[in-house]
């Protein structure tokens, strides 16, 4: 047994060094103090102490990042900033300016974000996803550079506006994502799915092996987050959302219909239940994962995403979650404006 632990030591040392060097030191309020005492991971005990045999194959095109990769991948920072701030504030009551201020690159703090009244299960899920978004912001900026966090409107009033537009009338009382766990999960239905659409659309137009690896990794986690939110909501699909007497399933259907309408490019969005002919293989009405007729994720362009996120249906007219418009070369080009203050195309 002693020799097994000794053989595992080099593996564990490398693992710990990787963990320490890969992230930023978070303030204590973002550290889960309820985790069990740290111990030797089971995976480390399986190591024989020999050399690693996990070298990936050489890329066919030995260019890590092509110049034309930069702008499409940087565009994703807009959504990553939005998710990071919404999740961080919702779970911890504080955002990037406390968790990782350097990643905000001097951009203005979000408007209206605050801590949500979450049950323990939802808080843990949102906390995990919030910290994952910090990692996403860091690795994107390390790979293709970045720009300042745009001005974000994460106020209850803005989310109420989304839901009012989705239903075609004013909900009474106005929808507030921070009131309880169910409302917060419904608000989480609004944004993260768009990240999936964006990464699916980005993948075919980039060529660097490092940028393609990055987008694939980001897409995997974003899809997992969206699946988790949709599963939590699916469990409650028949439940009426108080005090509106409207089911969870109808809320998701209305939000998806709004995104399709604003995106102006057909159906690329579906709620938790669909007519059977629109379900997988035309055989089921369950729709935990939104996908096309071949069960593939839908793709959206930056213009489509901005139309939805601005809530204007026009990529040239900012509003909604980005009162001053999104940042980066692609988003600012629609507004006829420069990249953004204090912004650098690289690093």
UniProtKB/TrEMBL annotation:
Pfam families according to UniProt: Ferritin_2 (PF13668)
Domain of life of the organism encoding this protein: Eukaryota
Keywords, ordered alphabetically: Signal
InterPro entries per the UniProt record, alphabetical: Pigment-catalase-like (IPR052965)
Signal peptide annotation: 1-25
PANTHER family to which the protein is assigned, alphabetical: DESICCATION-LIKE PROTEIN, PROTEIN PCC13-62, PUTATIVE, EXPRESSED-RELATED
Protein's recorded name: Desiccation-related protein PCC13-62
This protein's encoding gene: LOC101771345
